[in-house]
Amino acid sequence: MNSINLKIEGDYVNSFIYSGLLFLVKNGGEVIIFDWRRLLNKKIKKREYREFANNCSITIKEDFEDIAFDLEENEISDCTLDKTFLNFWPSDFVIYSNVLYFSGQSGVEAIALDFNNKKFIEGNRKFIYSNRAYKLASAKHRGIAIAAGINGVVLKSINKYLDDITPPKLLEKNSIDIEWGTSTLVINSDFVSSVDFFEKMPNADFEKMNRTEKESYNALKISRSLEREMPGYSWSVGNRLFNMNESNVRRSVISQEEGDEKFKVKEVKIKSEYYSFDNFDSARSGSFGCVVDLYDRLILMNDYEIRELGRDLTKWKVFPRAKNYVNHLHMIEDDCLNIKIFARRDMISRKFGISPSNIDA
């Protein structure tokens, strides 16, 4: 395996990388914006490695063994761009259209970001949902999906001014885990997953619409109320839908031709003498393959192997909708954030991952 590994010392509970900015949430609720490029310059001396860490489409010309860098907390203080505080423990954290969304016991709080100045807009933050919230998912032109447990799934289409573009839509499905695909919303609950199909995302013409036209566009319209349920756990990346049930993974490519949702299904058997997949918490895919949370350890499945990535993690995250960072894996450990950036042959997994060129962010 070839990867660049960067450990950042600190007591963190969550993280996110977005357009050259690294966001870290500390235990206690402090949210910090770091300049990602400046942070890379601290330890990584080779320019092509730094460029690759910020954009995975850049080719590294030479082979290398795994590279590891450690950054102490006091070393990155001059990379800080801004800070703010949360009043609750965040269950999940996503960024969509220059707005940060945090879910938790109190609901979902949105904090607007002044991207040009790389600062929070403290006067532009509010709760967009006021009941218990678990997972969050975002998608281009769709807005935010909120897994609200027994209260269902709440779909909100929000603009950068934190104004509601369309009224919230409620799907009456118990869920604590959701994920957007290109045209699907995957909802997991009690060992059963369901897939709701949405109308195709608008093409480039959407970008030409004025604000009034965008507000009138209903990006949350379910396509003919079509829904599929399947046993096991499911997740989506791009136009691929994965369903895992014990030692079997069903990989589907979803096409929407002439208005019909069609599945092209291929089954992949999981063969491992070291790990059992009878009981697991969640799974997600990056370009490098599928990451499976077995509760006490994190496992990677790609085209070449099944191997362990870490144990007893506080949080982990991949970025399947980020073209520049789809090869990144964030793992929150007891005393640091461990960022693993996959390169070379591990960068793209044809069985379990997605190519950066196929991302519709």
Write the layout of secondary structure elements.
Blueprint: E1 2-9, E2 12-18, E3 21-26, E4 30-35, H1 36-43, H2 47-54, E5 67-71, E6 80-85, E7 90-96, E8 99-104, E9 107-114, E10 119-129, E11 136-139, E12 143-147, E13 153-158, E14 164-171, E15 177-180, E16 184-189, E17 192-198, H3 205-208, H4 211-216, E18 222-231, E19 233-237, E20 240-245, E21 248-257, E22 260-269, E23 282-286, E24 289-293, E25 297-301, E26 306-311, E27 315-318, E28 328-332, E29 336-343
Key attributes of the depicted protein:
five-stranded mixed β-sheet; mainly beta; 361 residues; single chain; 4 helices; 7% helix; four-stranded antiparallel β-sheet; globular
Can you describe this structure in just a few lines?
By secondary structure, this protein is mostly beta strands. The protein is built from four helices and 29 strands.
Report on this structure.
By secondary structure, the protein is mostly beta strands. It has helices spanning 36-43, 47-54, 205-208, 211-216, and strands at 2-9, 12-18, 21-26, 30-35, 67-71, 80-85, 90-96, 99-104, 107-114, 119-129, 136-139, 143-147, 153-158, 164-171, 177-180, 184-189, 192-198, 222-231, 233-237, 240-245, 248-257, 260-269, 282-286, 289-293, 297-301, 306-311, 315-318, 328-332, 336-343. Strands 5-1-29-28-27 form a five-stranded mixed β-sheet, with no helix packed on it. A four-stranded antiparallel β-sheet has the order 2-3-4-6. The chain is globular. The protein starts with a strand and ends in an 18-residue tail after the last strand. Residues 256-261 have low confidence and may be disordered.
